[in-house]
Amino acid sequence: KSTVRGPAIIGRDAVIEGAYVGPFTSIGDRVVLRASEVEHSILLEGASVTDVGGRIESSLIGRNVSIYRTTSKPRSFNFMLGDRSEVGLL
């Protein structure tokens, strides 16, 4: 069961399962959004967001980007970021 709170745009062949799509969000073609929350954001074509443990907001997720929760220990962050990227961590 998913919740979509518009205004929102959902692209062709997008898969949204057990997710929350908040207002002012654009989900591109072939995006996969599972067990995650996103609002005020743009997910471009082919992006995948799976089992994220918090809400993604005010973000731009590029084409074919994959964001997912890992269970590996010790906990660490691994990034591959493009020019002028910005990441905020808690």
What do these coordinates show?
The chain has one domain: 3 Solenoid (UDP N-Acetylglucosamine Acyltransferase, domain 1), CATH 2.160.10.10. The relative contact order is 0.17. The chain has a 4-stranded parallel sheet with strand order 1-4-7-10, with no helix packed on it. The chain has no helices and 12 strands. The chain is 0% helix and 36% strand. By secondary structure, it is mainly beta. The model has no long low-confidence stretch (mean pLDDT 91). The protein is globular, with a radius of gyration of 13 Å.
Summarize the structure.
This protein is mainly beta. The chain has strands at 3-4, 8-10, 15-17, 20-21, 25-27, 32-34, 37-39, 42-43, 48-50, 55-57, 60-61, 66-68.
Any idea what the CATH architecture is? 3 Solenoid
Helix content: under 10%
The secondary structure category is: mainly beta
Mean pLDDT across all amino acids? 91
Distance between the termini: 29 Å
| Fourth-tier CATH superfamily name | Hexapeptide repeat proteins
Number of separate strands: 12
Largest sheet: 4 strands, parallel
Q: What are the low-pLDDT stretches, counting only 5+ consecutive residues below 50?
A: none
Give me the CATH fold name.
UDP N-Acetylglucosamine Acyltransferase, domain 1
* Gyration radius, rounded: 13 Å
The number of distinct structural domains comes to 1
The global form is: globular
Strand content: 35-45%
In DSSP terms (H or I, runs of 4 or more residues), the helix count works out at: 0
Widest sheet: strand ordering: 1-4-7-10
> Quick one: CATH class?
Mainly Beta
Q: Could you give the order of the helices and strands?
A: EEEEEEEEEEEE
